Every structure is written in structure tokens, then in C-alpha cells.
Write the C-alpha cells for this entry.
Amino acid sequence: MSASVPFYRKHQRSYDRGYRYQLAGRYSAGTSGGTRTRGLDWLSQPGLDPLPKRTKPSYLAVDRENQIIGYVVPMFRTSQEFAEGYSDHTRLRDTAAYMERCDRFTSGLEMERSEQIARKEAMRESAQRISFNKTLYEHDEHFKRMNEDSLLHVPEFIIKPRSHTVWEKQCVRLHCTVSGWPDPRVVWYKNNVAIDPLAKASKYKIESKYSVHSLEINSCDFEDTAQYRVSAMNVKGEVSAFASIVVKRFKGEVDTFLPAPRHGPVSEYGITFQTHIVDNFGVSFGREGETLSLGCTVIIYPALHRYQPEVQWYRDGVLLSPSKWNHMHWSGDRATLTLTHLNKEDEGLYTLRVTTKSGYKTYSAYVFVRDADAEVEGAPGAPLDVCCLDANKDYIIVSWKQPAVDGGNSILGYFVDRCEVGTTHWIQCNDTPIKFARFPVTGLVEGRSYIFRVRAVNKSGISRPSRVSEPVAAMDPADRARMRGTSAPWTGQIIVTEEEPAEGIVPGRPRELQVTEATKNYLVLSWKPPGEKGLEGVMYYVEKCVSGTDSWQRVNTEIPVRSPRFALFDLAEGKSYCFRVRCCNAAGVGEPSDPTEATTVGDKLDTPSAPSKVVPTRNTDTSVVVSWEASHDAKELVGYYIEASIVGSNTWEPCNNKPVNVTRFICHGLTTGEKYVFRVRAVNAAGLSQFSPESEPVEVKAAIGGGIPHASPAPPYGISVLECVRDSMVLAWKQPAFIGGADITGYFVDYREVVDGVEGKWHEANIKAISERAYRVTDLKENRKYQFQVRAANIAGVGIPSLPSDTFLCEEWTIAVPGPPHDLELREVRGDSMVLLWKAPVYQGRDPVNGFYVDMKEAEAPEEAWRGVNTKATGNTFIKVKNLKEQESYVFRVRAQNQAGVGKSSDISEPVQAVTKPGTKEISVDVDDDGVISLNFECANMTPDSKFVWSKNYEDVDESASRLTVETKGNKSKATFNSPGEEDTGIYSCLVTHTDGDSSSYTISPEEMKRLLEISRDHKFPTIPLKSGLAVEMLEKGKVRFWLQAEQISPNAKVDYVFNDNVVTQGEKYKMNIDKNTGVVEMTMESLMPEDEGTFTFQMKDGKATNQSSLVLIGDVFKDLQKESEFQRKEWFRKQGPHFIEYLGYEVTPECCVVLKCKVGNIKKETSALWYKDGREIKADEKLGFTEGVLKLEIAQISKKDAGVYETVLKDDRGKDTSKLNLTDQRFKDLMNEVFNYIANSSTPLKITSTDQGIRLYTFVSYYNDLLPVTWHYKDSPIAFSERLKSGVVGDQLWLQISEPTEKDMGKYAIEFNINDGKGGLRRTVELSGQAYEDALAEFKRLKADAIAEKNRARVAGGLPDVVTIQEGKALNLTCNISGEPLPQVTWLKNDKELTSNEHCILRFESGKFASFTITAVSTVDTGKYSILVKNKYGTERAEFTVSVFIPEDVAPCKK
């Protein structure tokens, strides 16, 4: 390109000199006219305002018809330049004035004064200039602070490249203009491959000047027809523009849709090409870091000059494009692919495809890439396939695949490194290794592009880094798309629309917040911005809280995020969190979004289960085909790694270093003749699975004569004919006894014709394997004889054929009855039953089959032992045989019938022993908490290859169209009903493959289904069971407690308290509480007011379960409760001082004492208790008690005088309390009745005794009261008392006296205590007759005689002292009374000697009553013991006394 101005810049006004002068003149005119401008006044003039505007400046130059003709580069003078221009103008003007004054004034004084003025003016101008410059600097700095990004601009295409259509051999130039700061780096691409002008200097020329970038293509040919892209990139982001170039020939246009234009004028029409690929590349092996070339020679016939076919290379079916890793070359007869720097990503099946108009030819071979030598011994291999799954402003999610080689130690995790595009500085993104094969990288600079790599680490060291990822920019996809813009027609016009942001509006809530990815290391949130448009500068704050709490914490406290996605780290593994997001802008922070559901931190993705059933098969001298069964229930499966080991070496080597996503792989590079075993493991983002069980050993050699012994199935047997028509036969056979190393995948049938006993050649009846054990062989000839053989196949190969069958004649069956059923199978074998299944006959006979008969016998029994199982034909193809004998073996056969009769029986089943195997379990039905009905079966004899097969009415269930959903985990399988109903009734069975017939069934009848639906309904819409409904009770101080009790509630239960349809909440009036341990829900109120009349309801919710209970308090019920509340409130205040816990009452003791007592509380030493009766205080001499909080007053012998009103008063400085007891009228009668009841119950049985007056009947009581009503009865009639019949009381004895009894007094006597207590009186009886009467009468007579004798007996009535002391010389006179009839004889004795009367001792007995003893003058001789003895016929009595005579002291010496 010449140095002259390009054609597209010649018409721009910015390069027109006249235009410049016009602008300069305009600016000058704005400052020279009028008064001189000072300060910043000029800043307000139009066109010179430095403040930025919101409108986007236009850089496009248009003509009068608004057609774009170029672009404009605005020229702006800086503030400094304007400031300098202003000062120069002023200085010139002042200098001219000075010269004029010098001419006018010549005086030296005036000149000096002028100089002084000029100096002052210059100093003033200098100060103003300095102040002005300072103001401009401060303004610029303020503008920079207010617009931090004003200096940085994302790249933007001012003019985009336009598409061109050119003729062959012409040159074409694509040009564009790009703005941005820093200056963008511009790269040109052809079909997404970067153009290197140095590699093809004569072809391409790239220039960049003055933000104008161009690509010039010299001498265009058909290969230059492509889409070209120009990419501009700086630290703020990347933007691209596209243009297409179509190269046409002079002789007709080349169709633009052809994939590759061809050189030369050769016409292909009417020619058929034959393509041959020779000199092929074989299976190749390379190592990381090496260069590998793959090439083939392509021969195309006929060979046309300059004819170029379409040559394409594929890896694993994916078309390869030229890149720095892949170089492709076509020399005209040889196609070459060069892998410049091998990595494990390059491993795979490479295919060369050569396409002509006559078709295409392909050739494929596998390329294996081994790990490079580890830098540290024992370190793992490098990860592979590093890519970016998600990119936005704040983070980029990087994913990779785990390596196959772990270095002998399990991989601890991975380190992710990043590098900014354009630099070579790698930064490690995570401090600790992560095990999950995905990681969000944060801390990126928005708009910049990055590449990533991953390293694996184990305990030995760190692996080599992986191949770097493709570059990706840290920006939102929406921003990336917006930056690319929308191109208008070829003119290159750019249409920019931008909504004016709304200022001062706080953004709304973010929408649709969800957790998009969760592992134990990180968690990713995504959401949608608020629905409002035009909000200015919206950013986001993320908040979290632990589930079950309401404590929200802001995660990004320092810097809000700009993109609607965010990655969180450092969450506690195993804990559950909720998240929410707030929007914010300059106007403030908005309301939070709705929180997410609780999310538990942990790896949601589990490592896959181990593959199973690895079967190797010989292939070539250096390779083996390995097949396996896929991992069960594997999620996000990446593929499989296969390892091989020479038998006995215990050293495992990887067969592939890139996961394969198939279940069959050819392992190359093996040693011929060695025996190998293989194992497989699966891989996903969570990690590697356990290894599968090792395969059987296989010797590496060409597969001639079959594969591994016993890997393919044994031959089937029992070939029979089920139907025969004129040109076909339906065959059936039995499954091989040994299926080989894997499940049978199908059968192959061969047939041959037999002519006169000579067998012909075998022919294939089917090319594609059949899965059923019945097949129709067609294209046979009528009335010809045939033999058949069957081979079974599995993934290991096709087994050997069965023995030839019997010879069958191909002729049409015409019999009326059905053919034989077939394929008999026995399931659910138990000790007393088993289920027989069969398939209906292929040949129906004249009429359709309408039933089956089943026969059975013991296996060893003769033919005569066959007996029918069912007497009536069954329409099912199964039957349960019951009442079997345990441990016995049985065989079965089945016959079909139609209207014509019963057909031929089937082949006899294999013998089966009726025994229940150990560990056998049955299907159970379950209804979970969500009301889901399921059938569950557990198998204890599972093998790695076992599967659960569910069926309804013994027909396999198709899960895709079934009403069941089957889920299997381990040795348990669950069949869940999707929408249970009457149509789901039937027999459900489950069979476990690869076991010894483990199976079971469960019958769901209509009644059973109805029962299960009722249970499901209860579980689906559960209610919280209540022990007691809502009730009300009074608490102390008159508080009202509403409560109910649930059977059981969880910690998450919630209760709404509703009064008259309004929810009430915790506050001063209402206090709520839930005891989740006991299930008690309560609400208390301080008191009841009139406005509280209404309905109270507790609404409970616990998970899905709900319940509510209501209590209606209106009318009299509410009023009574309100009164009770007020009473309890008063009671509470009463009990604050000394008070009665139990008010005054009474009790009667067994001793018939009445005790008035009351129980008191809250007393102290100063508390006094006073008793009153009828208002008068009871004195202290009464029996009062005040112990242990009980106050007592005892009335020992109660009587009518004790009736009255008793009162007890408690008082101290805290207050007083009073209790009264009314014991008058009826209350006193009730008390006395209770006393009388005690007395009556204490009475002894009525007894008989005799007295000297007659016969007495008596009873004793513990206490007698004068008020006790007693009635005596004789022969059940009250006794009329008289002088002869009297009753009385002596102490505690109640008696009836019968004086002078006679025989008329004989009979039944009773005493009755008349107690008015409503229960009747108590009666004691005795029988006075017979021997009792005789004994009592005799005793009476005896006592009567004794009484007479006692009455008339002689006796001394009294008057004699015991001792008489008398002075000597005194007279002694003693007199006593004497009684007795007849008159007694009196005798006096001294010292037991009879005395006679004399002058000294005078003895008299006068009037028969008085006896006297007189001694006229006593002397010491009279001292002695005296006695009087009286005697008559009834008895004798003696009275004694002693006489002691003393001498006075004044007389005694004289006598001496």
C-alpha cells in the first residue's frame, strides 16, 4: 500500500485544509469579538463544552442521500492549547497599547509609571494563567474519577469488512476500521483458521495503520472462496466481524455451496470415478509430545488433469479442521494428516474420507497415545480434554477428563492453572486439590481472554500439565453477542441502539434463582435479572443462610457481581443452605429474590458403578476384542478405561488413554502367544469407578476356530415343529444348559434337505439373530424332508451348532385340534407350590384356542401316573400348582383345546424339585409417606450379572408404556404404580436373572387395590393425629390456657392461631408455645374480655400432614368461663397472704370425736389463727391445733349445745383470710348422723346375760351419745316398756332388762340404731329361746337366790376404826352397826379370845342394830388386837381393830 491517503479517506472533511481553517476561524471568532473573556466563561460556549454527553458521537461520513461514504476522525484541541491561545491574544493587545502610550507621552516619569502598570498587569495575567491551569487540571482529574473507564474502551468496528464477489486471478482487499483503548490486536481468519502472512507472503498481505486494518489477497482462485473473520481484542474484550469472498470463473460461475472448488477447466459430467485407497497407515502408537503423520495414497480412475476430490479427515467421527495441532496436506495423489504435538486428546479412530461425484471411500485405523514419562516417578498421567463449560464476567467453569494412569497411587485431586492470552505467566487457581472434574475459576479480569490447563496430583507428585484449552473471554455471553453487533448491508453501516438508562430507580427482585451445579467444593447459582428495562449499572449481592434458620449472611461483601451467575466456595460439607440474591445500583439495594430450596453441600454426582462381565475374544496376533456390560445407573458417564495384564505378572497397563463411550473395544499392541486378563472401569466427572472383575485369560493369537473356551454358548437342544404349512415350518428349541460367558443375544437356524436319507448342505435360515426360541423357516418345498440345527450367540461369539434334529416332512397340517404349546417354564418354586408358564401353540387348528389343560406327575413315576392339575380349562398361559409334596420332583405338560377338541401335548418340562431355597423372599407391598404404592422384592442370591424382570400376569412390563416405574438398587427392586387404579389389578411377579430361579409374585385383587388406595389417600393427604382436641383450662391468676395435644409432631411443625377467622400472633395479649417433644400446642391469655367471645382455632401443619381443632366460646359458656377467670384472678391475689388451701370442714374420728379442720398455706411465725363460734371467740382452753399447715378444733363429746356457725380467721401483716362452717339445722343433723353411724358400727353383737332381777340383753359401743336414737324390738315389733321390761345405758353399755322372765318372753330380740343418712339403720339381733333361754333362766334363779342370801347375811356395817391409840386411864367406847335377818349373834374377841362383859370392859348389843365396846379406864394391859364376829344362818362377818395404850411422858418417870 502506498503512503498516499487511501481512497476511502480522501472525502473526509478532517483532511480538507479549508475545513480546518474554517474551524480555526470559527474558534477564533468565538474568542476575539466583544469584551475580553476571563475565567471559565468560555467553557459554556457551544461546541467547546468538555463535559461528556450521553449521546454517542457519530464517526460516519454521509452524502446528501444519507449514503455512507467514509468516516470522520474528530479533531479536538486540548484545554491547555485553548488556554495558551487566550494568553497570547491578550499579550499582543496589551503590547500595542503600550507602544501607543510611549508615542503619546515622552516624560520619563510617565514611562516609569507605565512600566509599573505593565508589570502589575503581567503579574496579574500570570496569576490568572496559573489559576486557570490549576482549575483545568482539577476539572480533568474530577472527570477521570467520575469516569474510571473513560480511558478504556472495548474494541468496536467503526467500519466492518464487506463481502466481495471477484473473478478468478483478481485481487481483493478487505478493510475495516476499529476503535478501542488500549489499541486492539487484530487477527484475520479464513474458515476459523488464523491467516499467517509469513507462510504465504505472496498470497496474503496484512496492514494496520491509523486504526485501519486491511487484508489483501493476491491472484484469487477457487480455494480463496471462504468466510473471513477479523477479530479485535484488548483487555476490555473481543469483537469479531465477518465477510465472505466468492471467486468466480470466466466460463460460468462456480456454485458457492460446493465444499471445495476444483482447479482447471475439466468437466466431470458423464464420468464414473473409481477410488482406491492404498499404502494405508496402520494402527499407530505415539507418545505425548511427539509428532505423528498418517498418510494414504489415493488412486482415482480415470485420472483427470487438475481434478481434486474432497479429502476429509475425521477423529472418532468428528470432522477435523486445520489447526496448530492438525496439519493436512493433499499432493494430488496422497493425503497426509500430521499431528504436530501429540496429546491424549489426539487418541482415537482416524478416518480418511475421499469423496468424488461418484461416491466416497473411507479408511480407518486407531491411533494410541501413551503418557509421556512423568517428571516425578510415580506421578499420575496428565488430564485431558480441558474445556470451558460456562464463561461469564465473574468466573469460568473448567472441565476435564481424568487420566487412565494414576502412577500406582490413587489421584488425590487436580490443580487448575490459568494464563492470560498474550502472556506466558501461569497462575494456579486452587490451593488444595479438587477431586471433582469441574471447577469454577474466579478472580478474572472482565473482558480479558484466558487459556487453562490441569495437572493431576497423587502422593508421589504432580503430573505434567494437560493440553491447554481454547481461549475464552471473561464476559457474559449477552455482552459478547452485543459486542459483535449487527451488520447492515454490504455498505458496512453499524446500527447501534441503546436504551437511555433510568436514573434513580432501585432495581427489583432477581427472578428464577436456582442452583445449577453443586459439589462438595463449590456451588453455582444462576438467576435472571429483574424484569425492568433500562436500569442503570445493575449488580448483585448473594446471601446465604443455614437451612432451618433465618440468619442471612452476605457472601460477596466487598464487590458485587455483575453477571447473573455466581460460584460459592468454602461451604461446610454436609450442611444444607438456602440462597437469595439482591440487585443493586447507584440508587440503592433492592429487595431479595425468593430463596432457593435447601441444598445440601456434597457431590450430587456419584462415581459410576463398576462395569461387569468382561469377555475377551481373540482378534489378531496382537489384538483382542474386549466386551463388557455397561455400568448400571451411571450418570453423566464419560466413558471407560480398559487395562490388560499378562497372567501372573500382576502388572496392569492401560489399553486406552482416552475414555471410550462404547462397551466393545479392540486392545492393540499385545504380545503374541501371551495370555492376558482384562478389567474395565467407568469414569465420570465425580471420578473413576471400581474395577470390574477380571476376565477369563485369553491367549493372544489370530481368531481361527473360535475364541475363548466356554465364552460362547453351548448348543441348544430339543428341536421340535410347532406348525407346518406348504412352504414353511415353525421350529422351537430349548435354551442351552450353559450360556457361556455372557447372556445369549440371539439364535441362528440352519436347515438342510434330506433326500432318500442323504443329507444335503446346510443353509442359513436367518442372517440376523433372533431373540425368541421359536422361528419360522420359510422358502421350503412342500412334501420335502428337512433337518434343522440351531446355534446360540452372545457377545463373545456364536457357539457350536446343536445336533441335527429329527427329519420333518414339510406338509401342511390339516388337523382340527390345536398344535402343542411350547416353551414351558417353571417359576416361584416353593416347598408346596410352583408356577408353570407356557406359550400358546403356533398352530391354532380349525378354531381359535379357548383353553389349556395342565398335567403333572412325579418325575420318576410311570406314564400311568399323569394326572390333571385343572379339571376346567384355563384361558391363561400360566397356572399355579399347589399342594405339592416337599422334596419331590415333578414334570409337567400342557395341552391346548379349541372347539374341535384337545390337541397334542407339549414337550415334557424339565424335572423341578418342590423345595423352598434358603434365603427365598416374597414380594411385599408398601405405601410410603407420599402415598406411593409400590411392590418390593429383595434377592439374597444376586450375581454381578443379575437383573430384576417385572411382569404383570406373567407378561414382561414395558417401562416406557407401563403404568409401573421400576427402580433397582443393589439387591432390591421396587415397582412403583404411577397412577394406581382398578386397571392395575392382577398378578405381579418378579424374576431375577442369573440366579437359580429366584422369583416371587403378588396378587392385587380389586379388594386389595381398594385397600391400598385408601391407605395411599391417607398417606398422601395425611392428618396429624390428636390425643386431645382444643380445650380450655384456667391457670393461676385467672389466665386462660387454650391447648391441644398431637400424637407426634416433628421439629418443623407450624401452627397458626386463629380467632374469628383472623390469625393472631405473639404479643402482650397472646402467648404461644409448641412443645415438640410432647406434641402440646398452647396459647395463653392474661384474662378474658367481652370482645374475646368467639371461635378459637389451631391450624397445624407438619410437612404434608395437616389438622385443625376449634373451640366455640359464646353465650353462657363464655360468660361462665369469664367469671371463672375473674374468680381465679381474685383467688391468686388472696393466696399472696395467709390463706386457706382447704376451707373449714369437719371429720369424725373412730373415737366419735368431731374435728373441725382446714388446710392453710403461706403462713409464717407472725400469722395468727382465731376460732369463733356464733361470733364469739373460742377460748384457749379448747383443744386447738396448728401443725403442718393444718388448723384443727376438736369437739370431744358433741351435743346439741355444740351446734352453731364456726369461723376461722388467719391474719398477719400481709392480710387475712376467713373460712366459715355452718353446723346448724340440717348440717348439724348430718354431722350427728355421721357420729351416730360411727357409734352404730362400733356396737358389739347383742349378747344375753342374767341378773338377780331377770335376763338382760346388752351391747357395747365405743362411745355413747345422749342423742343416739335406739329402738328395741321383740319379734320384729317395737317393745312397749313397762316395769317388767326396761332399757337403759350403763357407761358404753346399752341393755334391755326382762324382769322375772317367763316362757312368754322367749323369742327374737333386736336393737336398732336409727340413723337418718339415707342408708337405713343398723340392727343387732339375738335369739332368746331354747337352750339359751334355759341357761339364762337358771342363771337368773341362781343369782336371785344369791341376792337374797347376800341381802340377809350377818354383817358389820361400819363404825370401827382400824387402829385406836389411847392414853392410859382414858375411857374407850366403840360402836358399830349390825345387820342381818334373822338377828345375828355378836361375839367380841381380844387376841382371838372371846371377851365377856364386866365392869372394866362393858359389851352391849342394843335394838338388834348397835353393838358397843366400852373400857372404862384403859391401861397398858388393854393393848391388843380386837375383833367383833357377827353370825346368822346366811353367813358370818368379822371386823378387826387394834388398841394401843400409851403413857404420857410426864407420868412415865413417876411410875418408874
